[in-house]
Design goal:
Layout lengths: L1 H22 L18 E4 L6 H9 L4 E4 L12 H13 L3 E5 L16 H4 L4 H19 L3 E5 L9 E4 L4 E7 L17 H22 L2 E5 L20 H9 L6 E6 H5 L5 H14 L3 E5 L2 E5 L2 E5 L8 H10 L5 E3 L5 E2 L6 H20 L2
Parallel strand pairs: 1-2, 1-12, 2-3, 4-7, 7-8, 8-9, 9-12
Antiparallel strand pairs: 5-6, 6-11, 6-13, 10-11
Helix pairs in contact: 3-5, 5-6, 9-10
Length: 370
């Protein structure tokens, strides 16, 4: 935070000089006070459920933009326009805008427990039925006015091995590939080569991105969390668990509606030195307008070994990260994710509240600083 204080002093000092010059009748050239780039980012959240009680919790802490979860009847894999409208109306009653939704499938879970895993299992005609449901969700979002959908394309799901004691009485989710012991050598997908994964991903994108183009709904992919060694894990090479893989992913379809749910924590987990490397990754995808949502979380560690921390105690400078998003003109939600938990706060609601305030403070400071 020392850099933030220094920048504030510089800002206040320059403002004071300008004020003194004006009071003395001096003219200050326009070049002495360049226009600051506006902050377009919004504090957001993706916690569920999207009920009146939870919406009031979010509003209490100043969250005005969310990823919502509509109530879907009959085990359908898509929400109807009416179901989306009911969710949006309830949010609006609490002063909240639904800027994104998540489908009831394509989650960050293993195919071993996923009832609708045909897309990444490469199973036809089942995957075609699931893709048709996703296409319908895109159309209905456009009709209801929901501008974006976030989703995953995973085989082994999120990987963690334990919880590590953290600040106070909290614990932090932990990953150490050297200590990981999968229940089975492979998932029910078996050994999936990188080429097979890319074929399945491309099959999905070729059939959904054109629909997103037609209806102008952004599709935001969450990367594989975490990346794994080149030898793979449970038969999966996690092609969406490297920065190079994500670069390839965004080129499969050239579209302004095809991009990333940029989980900064997950991307940090791909890097050998996230504290220095993450900013270049933000610039790469942000300058190409491929970041449609940001999960703003920190880690302590690096690829293959890390713990998930509060935002102010990890290896990534969050002041610099926020300035980098501003630099590339990022304009959507920035939200906490995977917060620490405690026995007295098992769902992390207190930790989320802390993160909301922390992010709002960074947003306000970023607005002040050039």
């Amino acid at each position: 935070m020392s850099k933030l204080r220094l920048n504030r002093r510089q800002f206040l000092s320059s403002s004071s000089v300008t004020a003194l010059a004006l009071s003395a009748g001096s003219s200050v050239p326009a070049s002495a006070a360049p226009a600051r780039k506006p902050v377009l980012m919004k504090l957001g959240c993706q916690t569920a459920p999207t009920t009146d009680a939870h919406l009031k919790y979010l509003a209490r802490y100043g969250v005005r933009n969310i990823c919502g979860y509509p109530e879907i009847a009959d085990d359908r894999l898509y929400a109807t326009v009416d179901e989306l409208h009911r969710m949006m109306d309830l949010a609006a009653q609490n002063g909240i805008s639904v800027d994104m939704i998540a489908p009831p499938f394509l989650a960050s879970i293993s195919v071993d427990v996923d009832k609708h895993a045909a897309i990444m299992l490469g199973q036809s005609p089942e995957r075609d039925h699931d893709i048709e449901a996703f296409q319908m969700l895109i159309k209905n979002c456009a009709a209801a006015g929901v501008p974006a959908i976030k989703y995953n394309l995973q085989i082994v799901g999120d990987l963690r091995i334990a919880r590590t004691p953290g600040r106070g009485d909290t614990t932090y989710a932990t990953w150490d590939v050297a200590e990981a012991h999968p229940r089975t050598p492979t998932t029910r997908a078996g050994n999936v080569s990188a080429d097979q994964s890319w074929e399945r991903i491309t099959y999905f994108l070729d059939r959904t991105v054109p629909v997103a183009n037609q209806y102008k709904v952004r599709m935001a992919l969450h990367p594989d969390d975490p990346g794994v060694p080149p030898s793979g894990y449970q038969g999966d090479f996690r092609v969406l668990g490297t920065v190079d893989g994500l670069k390839r992913f965004i080129t499969i379809q050239e579209s302004p509606y095809h991009g990333l749910n940029f989980c900064q924590g997950t991307v940090s987990e791909m890097l050998s030195d996230p504290g220095s490397q993450i900013f270049g990754v933000i610039r790469y995808f942000g300058s190409r307008d491929k970041i449609f949502n940001v999960h703003f979380r920190n880690i302590r560690g690096h690829r293959d070994k890390f713990v998930e921390t509060y935002p102010d105690e990890g290896d990534v400078d969050f002041v610099k990260a926020m300035q980098t998003y501003k630099e590339v003109g990022y304009k959507y939600m920035i939200m906490p994710d995977h917060v620490p938990t405690a026995e007295s706060d098992p769902h992390g609601l207190q930790s989320f509240a802390y993160c909301y305030g922390y992010i709002r403070g960074l947003l306000q400071s970023s607005a002040e600083l050039s």
